[in-house]
Sequence to fold (361 residues):
Amino acid sequence: MSHLVLRTVTKEFGAVRVLHGIDLEVHDGEFVVFVGPSGCGKSTLLRVIAGLERASSGEIRLDDRLVNDVSAADRGLAMVFQSYALYPHMSVRQNLAFGLENSRMKRAEIDGRVMEAARMLLIEPLLHRKPRQLSGGQRQRVAIGRAIVRRPGIFLLDEPLSNLDAELRVVMRAELAALHKRLSATMIYVTHDQTEAMTLADRIVVLRDGKIEQVGTPLDLYNNPANRFVAGFIGSPRMNFIEAETVATGDGIAVEVNGRRQALPRLDVAPGSPIVLGIRPHAAALTDADQGTIPLELTLVEQLGAETILHGRTDRGDVFTVTAPGQSRFAMGERIGVKLTPDHLHVFDAEGRALRVTPRP
Fold:
């Protein structure tokens, strides 16, 4: 295991800066996931940690050792790539052993490590096969095994499941979580899939445009997003957003939504301030169109068996999604109403920053 510290790390490609002053600490044995949209810098940050790219400025420390000028081969890390990167002419056994052979490790030690990794990943029967004779999931196990045999300080995984089908991704997520627990290893995992981030991570690092937006446990980010971007990125289906304006009432602040007044949690905000309400799809209650705070016309009904996802548009044209339990009777084109529960609302200012809310007594 290893302890990683990044201090004001930047990365520039020519005149283009893709990482902007990254500060982060990853503790021994922690599973940290970098998540964000395509182009946010998460894979570049992983490559800078690995030593495959050189940081333009800042410090990278592994166990209190400054490693900015240490080569990738000497950092004691192991990387698993999206493309598996297996040698096609070698057997599984040879792929697992190759890096150890290059380091001139003794044959008995190499064989022991290879067999240990093969048992751990349930690929013992595949040791004689070539990569072309393996399924996608089997190839990914071999790629992970090649990292395991090195016994690295930190495992770096760059979207390792993105080439797998949906069902196999679920299986491999469970296997990665179990592997992390068995090895008690420090792992840093890159993905654009927030479901993977939520299910695997001890902590999630949300990146946008080369900057860290928020770091926290999955439920911290889900329940207390720091801004509108994090709120919209974490959670599936994504959070709904409705623009509104605060109004003064006899007992505090309320908001006008579609011409209807909605009570708010306690907010430190002046009347007349523009705000954005955030509502999770599961937190919106369904009612008749003339009784809800927000009337919707349904544009899509997804019947998933255990739940129904209703997609609609408000009278102002805003997209809005509601999750209803079980199998519903709703149809496209139907008008429904949505009630908002004050204690389940997220509130953001005009710049997208989360406003602290206090539930009413």
Notes: The CA atoms of residues 306 and 326 lie 5 Å apart. The mean pLDDT is 90. The two ends are 47 Å apart (CA to CA).
